[in-house]
Design goal:
The structure holds 3 protein chains of 3 kinds. In chain A, 25% of the residues lie in helices and 32% in strands. Chain A has 10 helices and 20 strands. In chain A, strand 11 (255-264) and strand 12 form a beta hairpin. In chain C, strand 1 (37-39) and strand 2 form a beta hairpin. Chain C starts with 5 loop residues before the first helix and ends with a helix. Classes of the chains: A alpha+beta, B mainly alpha, C mainly alpha. Chains in contact: A-B, A-C, B-C.
């Protein structure tokens, strides 16, 4: 390994395998850049979710790790080894794709044994490890079946067992739950969480467009949009303290209010003017300049009805009953605010004047992006 | 994202195209060269080599001057055009019924078409001999009905007999791409159109026909090429009056042993068919067939 | 649905059958009927006889059947091997190479069969490969003609094959050769058998190129049918034609049985 390489490889390369490391990886189809300088490190035992809308480059990133697309620039490291030039079959990764791609002409056991046979594992070990992988995914009873004789959820388990049988140090999951219906999905989600706990040394890269999956499973989430990494952090960080408007609206729902920055208070909160109203928000990471435009982000369920700190008066534009909660859309100073409050005995009438409030602690100030996400409730998710 | 990955210009798969994998292309290409391309080149070469030796365009000048060739060329082309037109019309009608008017045993019909296509073309001419020959069924019906000595059907040894046989044999080739195109058509469109008050003819003209045009063009040009190249049907009619280009190649080479002329006719025929076939490939790629 | 009233629907159906039956079904029935008759001068054939068949499965005609079978089986296997190889190589090659291979291997479809026959005759009537007068020259011509169809079917099947399978296999550590042998070829098996059936049927019925180059001791069924009808023995010709159709159908049936088993697995 050259000096230059060991510099770019992650520091843990000494004793433990270093998981996945992408160093400024770019991928282009012709003139169209689909992945733009991605830097990403997944530690051993860590589950990193690549979260983003379709076309954001997340699947391309996964395929670059697997070796199915070759980056136009940048390097890919697996376990501290530069694998950029290696074909997929020499990278030793386990991979589960959206369609599962179970070989239809092989029984479940043969599917699971495939990777082991391909690398000429001794016969006795194959049987043992196939049994182990099927046991782990709860599919031991189905070893003699053909894929078409299994339900979607069962096929999913076999696909995971097939990837685990080769005991990879890197596991790539490409939208593994998107082909399942909602009920099966939540079951599989718990199952994946258990597998992740059991596979203490395996680096998992999990591509999804579903924020719930990412929030539930991931140790860290990398948010992608427009071929670029937008934000990266633990689910709590991204949810409580998003750094961009995109993250705020893509991970959970968000009210994004256009404000003008004012002075920093003695308690560390930052003043922000919405129309004529002075609001106070959490100071960390706020754009510095006073008088500059910024976006104030507050989650709908943290907005309360009635008087309180950061009080705002507005007109009720819409009331939606959602069972346990009421969603109120309230026009405040030219913007529409969403508030999810506990179910109300007597919801306000349309056109009524109401007062809303939220704690300064729950509000985050973000830099303004050129095209603000004006979608109330973050694109209807949740 | 999936759309991006399936775009026609995918990024190169890593390690997928090393030098040895390129060498894999060679054996089949070499085989094709030895058994097809080189022989074809020899035909072209021979067409410029008259029996007296040397290289000259004499076989061509002789050929273009000959009455037989001119007649064969025009006969070939007009038979092919007439048969193609017939195939398109008939194929469109039949495919329309199969696709849009529920038919008991519709599956049997398409199985039959597949079976039909696996038989050689000359069987049709053989059958037509029994049906429309001098002592065939049709004339038999006529003579027993009118008491006349001979029947009126005497077209089998004329180009029309060839046209009838070719329409019969090649119509399924038009129907198959059409049926494929029709199966892609959203039938809800037809329901909506008729709920808006469009009659069947209007629906056919305004909705189905535009949808079917690419398939018609592709099927039509394929059939045109096959008609230009058809030999079995013409041979079996046994008519001296019907000489097409392939027939001329056969008679020059086998019956007259005049290879340079045969090769010259062959070259003309190749140019005609391959040119049209190129057109077909372009059209069918546009049609996505 | 295009026609809504019951009466109109029946009218269309009857019209369809009036076109379809005489054009496509009647010719085949006529041949079968003729093969069982001794004369046909009127509306219906007369003099039912099995004599044509006893002739058709004996002596020369039987030789023609085995000749055709040997030619068709050899040619379709060779064509299948060459076509599959070429299609696989093309699918792994770049876009421009693939289009070139497509054009090259589809060329025999465009060139008239008679001309293919002539070309093969011209090329192999002189050293170094002197095949004229041997059965091999017929097999060579048939192989050239049907390879295009084998290539086309396999290439189409390859294009339809979900790349996720081979990628999953490669991801699991399988070398390209292993992926080919254990994943791609098994998944292609249904298409391969279909292509084999198509090639067989085409070769069984091939007349144009064969007429140009068949040696006197290697007369396939179509040539035999032609020489019979040319002599005026239409009924014997019909019987041989029925043998040809029957054999083709039987083999196609067997192939499709094989295919359903391959897809079921």
């Amino acid at each position: 390994m050259t000096a230059a390489m060991s510099e770019t490889a992650p520091a843990t390369a000494g004793t433990r395998p270093a998981g996945i490391h992408l160093d400024r990886v770019s991928v282009a189809y012709g003139k169209h850049t689909v992945l733009d300088g991605l830097d990403l490190t997944v530690a051993p035992g860590e589950l990193m979710a690549l979260l983003g809308p379709s076309g954001s480059g997340k699947t391309t990133a996964l395929r670059a790790v697997a070796g199915f697309v070759r980056p136009v620039s940048g390097r890919v490291y697996l376990g501290g080894r530069d694998v950029t030039a290696l074909p997929p079959h020499r990278r030793g990764i386990g991979m589960v794709v959206q369609s599962y791609a179970l070989f239809p002409h092989m029984r479940v056991a043969e599917n699971v044994a495939f990777g082991l046979r391909a690398r000429k594992t001794p016969r006795r070990d194959i049987a043992e490890r196939v049994a182990e992988a099927l046991e782990m995914t709860g599919m031991a009873a189905y070893a003699r079946r053909y894929p078409r004789e299994l339900s979607g959820g069962q096929q999913q388990r076999v696909a995971i067992a097939r990837a685990l049988a080769i005991r990879p140090s890197v596991l790539l999951l490409d939208e593994p739950l998107s082909a399942l219906d909602a009920r099966l999905r939540s079951g599989m989600l718990a199952e994946l969480a258990r597998l992740h706990r059991e596979l203490a040394d395996v680096s998992i890269l999990y591509v999804t467009h579903d924020q719930i999956e990412a929030l539930t499973l991931a140790d860290r989430i990398a948010v992608m949009d427009n071929a670029r990494l937008q934000d990266c952090g633990t689910p709590q960080e991204l949810y409580r303290r998003p750094r961009t408007e995109f993250t705020a609206s893509f991970v959970g729902n968000a009210n994004l209010l256009p404000v003008t920055l004012a002075e920093t208070g003695p308690d560390g909160t930052v003043g922000a003017d919405l129309g004529g109203t002075r609001l106070r928000a959490h100071g960390a990471g706020a754009p510095a300049a006073r008088g500059a435009a910024a976006t104030l982000c507050v989650r709908p369920h943290l907005v309360g009805l009635g008087p309180g700190p950061n009080a705002l008066r507005g007109t009720v534009a819409e009331v939606q009953w959602r069972g346990a909660t009421h969603r109120l859309l309230v026009d405040v100073a030219g913007t529409r605010l969403t508030a999810d409050v506990r179910e109300l005995r007597t919801p306000p009438a349309l056109g009524a004047q109401v007062e809303l409030h939220f704690a300064a602690e729950d509000a985050v100030l973000l830099p303004v992006t050129s095209a603000p996400e004006a979608v109330p409730g973050g694109g209807g998710r949740g | 994202m999936a759309e991006v990955l399936k775009s026609p210009a995918p990024a190169r798969s890593a390690g997928g195209r090393s030098l040895p994998s390129r060498l894999w292309v060679l054996p089949p290409v070499v085989a094709l060269g030895v058994f097809f391309l080189h022989p074809l080149a020899l035909v072209v070469q021979q067409s410029f080599t008259p029996d007296e030796g040397g290289t000259s365009v004499e076989p061509y000048t002789e050929l273009f001057a000959s009455e037989v060739f001119h007649e064969a060329l025009t006969t070939t082309v007009w038979i092919a055009l007439a048969a193609t037109a017939g195939c398109l019309l008939l194929g469109f009608l039949l495919a329309l019924v199969i696709a849009f008017v529920p038919l008991p045993g519709g599956k049997a019909v398409s199985t039959f078409i597949d079976v039909f296509l696996s038989f050689p073309s000359f069987l049709i001419t053989l059958a037509l001999l029994f049906l429309y020959g001098n002592t065939g069924v049709a004339n038999g019906l006529w003579t027993s009905a009118t008491g006349a000595a001979t029947g009126p059907f005497d077209f089998l040894t004329t180009p029309w007999g060839v046209v009838l046989a070719e329409i019969t044999y090649f119509t399924p080739f038009v129907m198959r791409p059409l049926l494929a195109a029709f199966s892609q058509l959203d039938t809800a469109q037809l329901d909506v159109a008729s709920s808006l008050g469009a009659g069947p003819l209007r629906i056919v003209r305004r909705i189905i026909l535009p949808e079917a045009l690419p398939a018609l063009a592709a099927g039509g040009s394929l059939v045109l090429v096959m008609c230009l190249n058809e030999f079995g049907i013409v041979l079996f009619t046994g008519a001296k009056g019907v000489t097409t280009l392939p027939m001329l190649v056969y008679s020059k080479a086998i019956l007259e042993s005049d290879y340079p002329s045969a090769c010259a006719v062959a070259v003309v025929n190749i140019c005609l068919s391959v040119g049209l076939y190129g057109l077909y490939r372009v059209v069918s790629r546009r049609a996505g067939a | 649905m295009l026609v809504h009233s019951r009466a109109a629907r029946w009218a269309v159906r009857i019209l369809f059958l009036l076109l379809f039956l005489p054009l496509f079904v009647l010719p085949l029935l006529v041949i079968v009927a003729a093969s069982l008759s001794s004369s046909w001068s009127g509306v219906l054939p007369s003099g039912p006889t099995g004599a044509h068949y006893t002739a058709a499965v004996r002596g020369d005609a039987l030789t023609a059947l085995t000749t055709s079978l040997i030619t068709a089986v050899t040619a379709s296997l060779l064509a299948l091997a060459a076509g599959t190889w070429a299609a696989l190589a093309a699918s792994g090659a770049g876009r421009r190479t693939r289009r070139l291979l497509d054009a090259l291997f589809m060329l025999p479809v465009a060139v008239p069969s008679v001309v293919v026959g002539l070309a093969v005759l011209v090329a192999f009537s002189k050293p170094p490969l002197l095949l004229n007068g041997t059965p091999s020259i017929v097999i060579v011509a048939h192989t050239v003609l049907v390879t295009a169809f084998a290539y086309q079917s396999v290439a189409a099947a390859l294009a339809r094959l979900d790349p996720a399978y081979e990628q999953a296999a490669a991801g699991l550590g399988a070398r390209p050769a292993y992926v080919l042998w254990r994943v791609r070829l098994p998944l292609l098996l249904p298409s391969l058998t279909a292509a084999a059936g198509l090639c067989f049927a085409l070769s069984m019925g091939e007349l144009s190129a064969t007429m140009m180059l068949y040696p006197p001791d290697w007369l396939p069924l179509p040539v035999r049918i032609f020489s019979a009808t040319d002599r005026g023995s239409l009924f014997t010709g019909s019987a041989v034609a029925v043998v040809l159709m029957g054999t083709t159908l039987l083999v196609l049936l067997a192939v499709s049985r094989l295919r359903t088993r391959a897809t079921f697995r």
